[in-house]
Amino acid sequence: MPTTVISTADPEPQITPILPVQVEEVDTLDDEEVTQDQHIGMGIFRFRFSLSNFRLGRALSERRFSIAEAAVLLIAAYIASRGLGVIRQSIFNAVFGAGPEANAYYAAFRLPDFLFNLIAGGALSNVLIPVFVSYDKDHGRQAAWRLISLVFNCMLAVLVVVLLAGEFLAPDFVNNILVPGYPASVRALTTTLTRIMLVQPLILALGTIATAVLSSKRQFLLPALSIAVYNIGLIGGLLVTLAIPSVGIFGPTVGVLVAAVCQVIVQVPGLLQQGLSYSFVWDIKDAGLRQVMRMLAPNAAIVVFGSSAFIIDTAFVSYLPDPASLAAQHNAFILFYMPVALLAQAISQAALPQLSALVTQGQYILLRSLTLKVIGVALLFGIPTALLLSLLGEPLIQIVFQRGAFNRHSTDLTALALIGYAVGLPGVIAGELIARTFFAMKDARTPLLTNALNFAVHIGLIYFFLAIYTGTTAIIAIPLAASGSATSEAILLGLLLYLRLRKKIAEERKQETSLP
């Protein structure tokens, strides 16, 4: 983060040092009960937070949480999920190691994840929360439920068509694009596992809408629990394999589907408490649906670039001389992604409803201040975390993963890949949080532009680093390329957001001075 912000004191914006200005977090829901505020932090990093909001009771799942409170819930959920994920991965590594079944399993995740994120994952969630916040405020609860039903019906129809197409095209995709460098037997297994996992996006689509609805009302408990329980299904699949060895890799593969079902079921009570009103409506000319689609198209393109980068990484790794490279990269990314989930995804998910509400109210000065607060706090934890991952990654991998078929060589490869990812951690965190501010402003085109540049830089850096790192060190080239491109995108996004908010704030001040 830079050490300067735009001053709010002068009509013409000037760059001035950061001052310890107190920015209060305001209540943005018309029907929210007003309570006596308590806070944590100091100076510009002061947030509303009350421990009494976490007291047990029948209404706990219905409570609305501030940004800090929601972040605590989501971070706890991600920690629980990652803790279960470490247990899951330790069992998986002990059973399958870095062998051909493991490589087929990791590769099979790519297409289902790509399709889910494209239609009903990150793309849709970034759209629904800002739209729901404004739609509920402007048109009322019943109209909002109608829009939710309409979005669900359209998404379900699209997912069914895409699922059928994916089942048909899976062999060509696996053999010619995903893992062309693998032996025929491994490619055949990857195709089979991919076809099973393709059912997952259809199930998770329900969870995405439920999460968006509850989050838009700042009810984060059940979405947090849905994150935490996801790995339970995966662990269950592995336990089936341990109990019945003949099941093999199909145990955790079916566990993926069970995990998706668990994630949806957890959130159903929250929707019922909100007065769930589903209707079979189909109106593609609906104004609300068109608003969703206008934002969804560039968001989907962003997911295409991000998921394509993972697929390209997988293809490059499949040609590396060490056959354990893909499994090592996967394990390194698991460790790297935990702080990303805690410091970028959890915090941005907690902040997005509040950011969206400030945009709806036209309060861009507060929006800028809140964005700086959120990014600043995340980076205060993110930079030291990146250093710790680089310095202590190898002993951490030994403790967590090195057992059974996962040997010392697997640990060395994973540690090297982790260093490459850790370099870009601050950039990934900042980029994620800045992008959410653009989404709150219902602008998905700017993140799309920067993501396209990220994608091009990413590919260029892969070739650049593969020319430098060869032999046993070649695996670090892929993570370093991802880190370099993510950091470049974060810098560009920050500059564009600064320019956008500068213009919006000038307009806001002009309106204030024109009032009688």
What is shown here, in short?
With 516 residues, the chain is mainly α.
Summary keywords:
about 525 residues; mainly alpha; two-stranded antiparallel sheet; two-stranded antiparallel ribbon; globular
Structural features, described:
- The protein has 516 residues and is mostly helical.
- It contains 17 helices and 4 strands.
- The strands form 2 sheets. A two-stranded antiparallel ribbon has the order 1-2. Strands 3-4 form a two-stranded antiparallel ribbon.
Main sheet attributes: strand count, strand direction, barrel closure: 2 strands, antiparallel
The ordered string of helix (H) and strand (E) elements is: EEEEHHHHHHHHHHHHHHHHH
Number of DSSP-assigned strands? 4
Strands of the widest sheet, in order across it, are 1-2
Shape annotation = globular
Count, helices: 17
Over the alpha carbons, how many angstroms does the gyration radius reach? 23 Å
Question: Strand fraction band?
Answer: under 5%
The unreliable regions are: 1-36
Distance between the ends:
38 Å
Estimated helix fraction: over 70%
